[in-house]
């Protein structure tokens, strides 16, 4: 390796992998369906890779200087690391070739399972909406250097004149993200395998150097979590690991990145970077959007190590305040005394490709936005300004400033009537009457049996439902024909539930494409994109809405559907709303005010909807908060502040309800054991919660906490077409009854039935009702 530090002036940590036209998704799904063979998949992936490289060059990165990252995972970057390390859990050992590598079919078997084996578990990547495949590491997991795909990519692009910078999840983060393999001794910590992992990384570095890589990027965002402080302290594990890696003969130069927050001890910002520098790493990255600015002392300790400054937000869609960022970069450059690289705060994986692809945004919005392609340019412009001085980029600075000014002054960003309302809020607006009084009023009104049965809201979104939605969008059926179709669908769903004997019914949500987008479309302050897809996991993409202005509700929008559904039945039918925290978590949210303020605006809009539902005679309203756990900050020290504003927003949405109106909420996608007191703080009358896969673990936590309101632990895992038997559901009901009094329990599935088919749904719900009836007879 050359000792001269040649890291480029501008770079990005990663780029969206899915493709501007979702090319990768389409190719991968065609391969799974058998419509494309392996060579066809490879060809499609190569084409997308060439397109990405060409596009990044066009946007201002350089072919020759390692500024273009090679992160082209077909499914997930953590799965790529598992494959590169040959770190297959024993239950998948048969997938490994002689040298420990997996082929394409094996790679997807890890991701998706096969007939007998469940896939690797999917879990949230830090506090984002991206999900990675969790490595399963035990005392005997193999670690070998088999990064064949990555080396091939580096070679392939080298032949085309591009020196890529291969990207890998770093060894410390890889093991922090892993879980102990089933059967590992109690207390086993995957980090115990660090030396074996490092040996494999050493091998990978050597083969990447041989393939022509001059720089390698190791991502260590794991250091921004609770364990980062200890691990990245001077003399700690990180220092030891990186000394070893830096000591590899003939290796490429190393960039270590730390997105998603402040690496190491948050009270000593930058110390972790200094430690990496001491260990011999050539470049270190800091997230300057979510993380704190490194201290002057830490910056001085970098010595000749290049600082890669993440000033362009990789997680949101707002245009950068270039003047401000340039100021930060100039300060850093002065303090380090050497050149600083301009970069993104994280990979651009979390944002859509290109604002320019949007044709339907409100006119004012595009100029305020930067998707991935615009962010690449921002990094390039900032680097030019840093090297050449402000006059070199005067026009760009001016442009950005005008857009920001326009945004700040635009009608709708600050709406007086909304502000007056949030400003005038008193504690009373967040508080309902006492829970016991509510329970009495509700029981009198609803007269529900012991162990009431219900579902979470959506019924199967069949091909007909999706077809009708597409048809009205393309204009091939009229709006009134579409609404007629929806009414018919709702009537069918209501009749089906009555026939099954469920106690509290739902309308089935056929009018909703997505539980957040539907609300974004019906509230002011939001915009929807057409092409703004971001990868959620594997080939799954979502299209988050953009929350750009003050939020308010022009008119009631769920009421017509809910009252129509209620008019068809004597049984209570639940109004169905998405909660404020979930709406924020799954949208791109304005960055010019605290999230809590925005959440309260959304909450007030929902509060109005609840009042209108009540006025229409609806007795039960469910406010879903599946993402409540998702936004929980990475460090436990920050949890309370988050839970305070998020729980308060939920209460603001629901506390206007009369005593006799039963408020439900629904939580899923996470384990909730550690946030029971926050669940309690929501003060909902009934909470349904995902629990079937963990065999109702959460009921013990709730009982231990002394939770006293209604609770419906899911007794039917809706994540696969499998039909749970009556006996199996009875077993789960018994588990719940053993922990909590029958008067508190509700019986329901884990989550909405949207992704299921009718055949399995009907059989499963029939078993759920039968098991409940049997349980009622025996308590
Ligand atoms: N009410 C929504 C549904 O049933 C809840 C979805 C969710 O929890 N993600 O689809
Ligand atoms: Zn759910």
TrEMBL record:
SUPFAM superfamilies with a match to the protein in the record: UROD/MetE-like
Membrane-crossing residue ranges in chain numbering: none
Family matches, as Gene3D superfamilies: 3.20.20.210
InterPro entries: Cbl-indep_Met_Synth_N (IPR013215), Cobalamin-indep_Met_synthase (IPR006276), Met_Synth_C/arc (IPR002629), UROD/MetE-like_sf (IPR038071)
Pfam family, one: Meth_synt_1
Family statement drawn from the similarity comment of this UniProt entry: Belongs to the vitamin-B12 independent methionine synthase family.
Name of the gene this protein is made from: metE
Physiological role: Catalyzes the transfer of a methyl group from 5-methyltetrahydrofolate to homocysteine resulting in methionine formation.
Annotated ranges, domain Cobalamin-independent methionine synthase MetE C-terminal/archaeal: 451-773
PANTHER family, A to Z: 5-METHYLTETRAHYDROPTEROYLTRIGLUTAMATE--HOMOCYSTEINE METHYLTRANSFERASE
Annotated protein name in UniProt: 5-methyltetrahydropteroyltriglutamate--homocysteine S-methyltransferase
Domain of life: Bacteria
Domain Cobalamin-independent methionine synthase MetE N-terminal residue range list: 10-335
Pathway: Amino-acid biosynthesis; L-methionine biosynthesis via de novo pathway; L-methionine from L-homocysteine (MetE route): step 1/1
Its EC number(s): 2.1.1.14
Native source organism of the sequence: Arthrobacter burdickii
NCBIfam families cross-referenced by the UniProt entry: met_syn_B12ind (TIGR01371), PRK05222.1 (NF003556)
Required cofactor(s): Zn(2+)
Record GO biological process: methylation
